[in-house]
Write a structure and sequence with these properties.
Blueprint: H1 7-12, H2 17-31, E1 38-44, E2 47-53, E3 62-67, E4 70-75, E5 99-104, E6 109-117, E7 120-127, E8 148-149, E9 152-153
Antiparallel strand pairs: 1-2, 2-7, 3-4, 4-5, 6-7, 8-9
Amino acid sequence: MRTIDFTPLYRSAVGFDRLAGLLETAARTSQEGGWPPYNIETTGENAYRIEIAVAGFKPDELNIEVKENLLTVTGRKTANDDAGAERTYLHRGLAERDFERRFQLADYVVVTEAGLDNGLLSISLKRELPEALKPRRIEIATGGSATLIEGKAA
């Protein structure tokens, strides 16, 4: 498998280090195993949902954490002790191993809710722009209104 060297980007671009980091993370993530499987869908203009197949996991065995635009979902399976009874499997195809899935979130994307139903962990996300970043209309003064430039009348 071929790796990509982002060193030239660091040498010639200023302020794009976060983008290079995202590309490196994406390259690393694509090389990981594909378990557990997941879907990412858009549910509205600024709304998204991640569904992760976590069959056999209980809610207390799952953890969802967001830190610095990185959503991390982990599953830690507790020991299967059926009151001391030993189980004999003829075939064991259900994966009961621990996992960790990471998703890089864009700026201002927040987790709004999470739920577990029929073995699917569903995480809803929404992009919430701060008021300062939302487009706003600027009124244009006409006629006798004085225009202020740097606190002084023009």
